[in-house]
Amino acid sequence: METYIEANRAANGHHAGTSFACEDVTKQDFGTERYDHVFSNWLFMYLDDAETAKVFARIFDSLKPGGTFFMRESCFRQSGNKKRSFNPTKYRSDELYESLIEAASRGGFTIEQRAASETYIQIKNNENQLMWLFRKNLDATNAAAAAPPAPTSLTPAASLVDTSRVYVKNDEYGGAGCFASVDMAEGVEVERGIVRVLTNCDGNENPYVFTWSDELPNTTWALGSGCSTFYNTTEEGSANTHMIRDFANKSFSIVATRDLKAHDELLHVYKSKKWRTCFKVLNEGEAGQKA
Ligand SMILES: C[S@@+](CC[C@H](N)C(=O)[O-])C[C@H]1O[C@@H](n2cnc3c(N)ncnc32)[C@H](O)[C@@H]1O
User: Could you tell me which of 271, 273, 283 has the C-alpha nearest to residue 214?
Assistant: First the structure.
């Protein structure tokens, strides 16, 4: 990596105000209101959701009011067709990226442009190389300084577990599901909680535990606090929530990926839905509906 940095320095070091660094982006401090523009390419697909949310918030804070942020990512699927035995890349949907950035900036970014790369469409017939230009709103409050969302219950902000915006009742499938207790805007934290990693548990058999790694096959399973067990799943594109897992801190945040009305059922796409034995029946149900 250092060799590339040196070559870049040799080619571009003469530009005023230029500095070069090779650092872990999740640990970098970008400062506050320093930059007019931030550019990133093929970065967030290599970070988990918790890291992505953190870096989005830092980029947002580092921009001057009215500043812009460009990013380009492979969405939905791999950009090439090379077979890989291990591929930890996250091919997120455009909806999910937009919800994560909405939540991280507390609605402080406006999407100025959204497009698929013409080059990839023409040469690779791939419409999933997506690019965004976000502009920081002039009146935005920086994420680090922003007050937490207005409480809707007596749950103190310091609580590791907050289920105050959710309730659980019988669902239409004969079990229990999670529902919004209040109206919530896209990006709002619906529920937060903690997990405990389980021993002697196989989540391929047990549908009530969480996949607690990005590895495949996954062998780490966890028990989630609060109402988290009771969220039902749905198809890509129909979800209204997303669970951001912070593996290291054994915690999660479930955020609204669209505006919610009180009593809407809260649905997210299970991370393990496609491969977990106990969810096979759910995929078959969907295939039947489409047929
Ligand atoms: C994590 S639990 C969710 C809570 C569950 N409904 C309950 O009552 O315990 C996962 C299980 O919920 C059910 N479930 C989740 N999403 C569903 C869906 N879209 N349609 C039918 N059943 C679903 C399936 O039985 C699945 O194995």
Answer: 271
Q: Name the architecture of domain 166-283.
A: Beta Complex (2.170)
Tens digit of pLDDT for each residue in 175-216? 999 999 999 888 889 999 999 999 999 999 999 999 999 888
Question: How far, in Å, from the CA of 4 to the mean position of ligand 1?
Answer: 49
Least confident of 74-83, 176-185, 244-253: 74-83
Q: Could you state, in order of their start, the residue ranges of all structural domains in the chain?
A: 2-136, 166-283
Question: 2-136 belongs to which homologous superfamily?
Answer: Vaccinia Virus protein VP39 (3.40.50.150)
Best substitution site from 173, 240, 269 to test ligand 1's pocket, by max atoms within 8 Å of Cβ?
Answer: 173
Three-state DSSP class for residue 176: strand
Which positions ≥6 away from 257 have C-beta within 8 Å? 95, 96, 99, 186, 239, 240, 241, 242
Whole-prediction pTM: 0.80
Ligand 1 centroid to residue 231 C-alpha, Å: 7
Specify the length of the chain in residues.
291
* Residue 127 contacts residue 116 (beta carbons within 8 Å): yes
Band of residue 290 on the pLDDT scale cut at 50, 70, 90: very low
| Contact in structure between 190 and 256 (CB atoms under 8 Å) | yes
Tell me how far apart the terminal alpha carbons of the chain are, to the nearest angstrom: 50
Report the alpha-carbon distance of residue 183 to residue 261 in Å, rounded.
4
Mean pLDDT of 87-105: 89
